[in-house]
Amino acid sequence: MRFEIVVALRFLREGRFQTGLIVFGVAAGFAVVAYITALVGGLQANTIARTLGTQPHVSIRPLQDAPRRAAPPLADPSARSDPAIQDVQVQPRAQRLRSVDNWGALVPLLERTPDVVAVSPSATGAGLARRGEAARAVALVGVLPDRYDRIVGLSSRIVAGSMRLGPGEALIGSELADDLGVGLGDPFTLASGLGTSDTFRVAGLFDLGVRDLNRRQVVLPLRASQSLLGLAGGVTSIDLALTDAFAADAVAARLRALTGLDAESWMQANAQLLSALDAQSVSTGLIRVVVLVVVVLGVSSVLVVAVTQKRREIGILRAMGATRGQLTRVFLLQGAIIGAAGSAVGAALAWAMLWAFVTFVKGADGQPLFSFTLAPSLLGGVAAVAMLCGVLAASLPARSAARLDPAQAIRL
Amino acid sequence: MIGAAPIIELKGVGKVYGTGTPVANTVLHGIDLRVRHGEFAALIGPSGSGKSTLLNIIGLLERASSGEYLLDGRPVSALEDAQLTRHRSRSIGFVFQFHHLLPAFTALENVTLPILIRDGVVSAQERARARALLAQVGLSDAIDRRPGQLSGGMQQRVAIARALAANAPLVLADEPTGNLDTRSSDDVFALLRRFNHERGTAFLVVTHDSRLAARCDRVIELTDGRVIRDQQIRVPA
């Protein structure tokens, strides 16, 4: 093998202009692949983290009152075959807030369920926040603060005050505080749709990173929420955090069967977001494949030219006793070396591009849009693919080099 | 020095290009030829007489269309490409008209190239031998220079050292002095003769130069693909 390595390196060094150009071409290609992979990976991880930061992995709610649909769809063939059903006008029943039956017994059961790391009951409903002339529609989220914190990590999002919630205290989003004109310790009134209302003091302000949530959410003690919403000891949902966020669908299905209640995973709740992320993954995959094809073609064409240029040398090597196999390997190795060198330069380039992105592209708050990592495993993978592509690109030229008729090549 | 055993033995070797096409061209007609170990023979003839084709066949770079070829006593006509290559690297050294060194390698590396190809490594001992060979052809000072930095005569002397580096018993030289001036070509020819004497290497030299042919031990003349003269012109020393 040493002969092949020595000759491959010499050939590449001899054509250093060509070699430099194609190594740079490969580097550019692989920098794009690594950059897109890291960027999109970071973007998606960030999007999912933000989504999950304000949502439970699985939410358990009581089943809705049936029937739920106003009329059977006309496309339903069974409905058409039965005229009696067709005539029935089914109206949706007005949904009132329903409590999860027997939730007190359910919580310890859920805590023992595999994959579940945190359980938080909550009493949630619509309400109105008022202070003086200002009034805003809000979502009342009544929770046990310690449990709730383990679902959404609220304590790390408190920007003023504290997470501690005493009776008559509430946490509100920073935007809502601005809207109402309240600060820490200030009183304001919360009313529910039932007409009950109560006065609360602002114990803390949070910033969930999503303006709409900051404007709408009011976190209050479970008991206070229950009395406002008329739930009297009931909860509207039980929220779960899991060890693996992507197991949510499976866990939700299991819990539906176990409890007979409605269990919704964050993936179902965000189906559109996830399908958008999927579409993004597919299109970046496509870009990567196209880049790889271009790189392979580029390397291949350079090596095809190199074989033609080196006809005589190949002939000499054959006359000196080099086998076809040896010459094949000389050119395959050149492809592999170009791939390796290209991916090394490409990794540096990708790193520079990502650094530039993080340094110069900032969000509204002056912070980088999201963090990224150029994982060694990604670079290793890209380098392996680069070498493989190099070898693949070299296979055709290598074959033609090995097939060269030595007598003709030398014109002995 | 000359043994009785032939290094080259051709029996009725013919070569046809474009077999089965309307332009089939017979280049060699039933050549019978024996060259013994240690011989120094010239192969002469006009352009198009088939000299180069014959040399290619003897050098295992081309296959004969018919007839039989024994290289150093072993029939090689029916061998596969890989085996031919092995025989070639073991038995035959080449000196080409345009010296054909690899431009990316130094003189010393060019000389050791056949060994690198054969063994994958060049031992210190072999490197020393290659240096000695380069010294013998008068290039002690040029061992680390690239072919581009050497004159034509010097390059041809590197090529001769390379042909001898792997200790092949047969060296095929195609117009080795073809593009050299008279003095350089005399030097190069003298070197070939010297290695023939000192090492007993058999040489088959294709040349147009009748002056050089006259200094060989044997002259084989080819015309229209046939041997028309095969003459021992001097008794080897």
Question: Would you summarize the structure shown here?
Answer:
The complex is a heterodimer of chains A (412) and B (237). Chain A has 412 residues and is α+β, with helices and mostly antiparallel strands. Chain A has helices spanning 2-14, 16-53, 77-81, 83-87, 103-111, 145-152, 174-180, 211-216, 222-229, 248-259, 266-269, 271-309, 311-319, 324-360, 376-403, 406-410, and strands at 58-61, 116-131, 134-143, 158-161, 169-173, 187-192, 197-206, 217-221, 237-242, 262-265.
Low-pLDDT segments, ≥5 res of chain A: none
Amino- and carboxy-terminal Cα gap of chain A: 28 Å
The strands making up the biggest β-sheet of chain A line up spatially as: 2-3-8-5-7-6
- What is the H level of CATH, i.e. the homologous superfamily of chain B? P-loop containing nucleotide triphosphate hydrolases
What is the percent of helical residues of chain A?
55-70%
| Number of strand segments of chain A | 10
Helix content of chain B: 25-40%
Largest sheet of chain A: 6 strands, mixed, barrel
Instruction: Provide the structure class of chain B.
Output: alpha/beta
N→C terminal distance of chain B: 8 Å
CATH topology of chain B: Rossmann fold
Total discrete domains of chain A: 2
Structural class of chain A: alpha+beta
**Poorly predicted residue ranges of chain B:** none
Radius of gyration of chain A (Å): 32 Å
Top CATH class of chain B: Alpha Beta
Q: Tell me, rounded to a whole number, the average pLDDT of chain A.
A: 84
Oligomer: heterodimer
SSE pattern of chain A: HHEHHHEEHEEHEEHEHEHEHHHHHH
What is the general shape of chain B? globular
How many helices of chain A does DSSP assign? 16
Describe it for me?
The complex is a heterodimer of chains A (412) and B (237). Chain A is of the alpha+beta class. Chain A has 2 domains: 187 residues, no CATH class; 142 residues, no CATH class. Helix content of chain A is 57%, strand content 17%. Chain A has a 6-stranded mixed barrel, surrounded by 4 helices. Chain B is α/β, with parallel strands linked by helices. Chain B has a single domain, classed as P-loop containing nucleotide triphosphate hydrolases (Rossmann fold), CATH 3.40.50. Chain B is built from 7 helices and 10 strands. In chain B, the strands form 2 sheets. Chain B has a 6-stranded mixed β-sheet, with helices on both faces. In chain B, helix 4 crosses helix 5. Chain B is globular. The model of chain B has no long low-confidence stretch (mean pLDDT 87). The chains are: A alpha+beta (412), B alpha/beta (237).
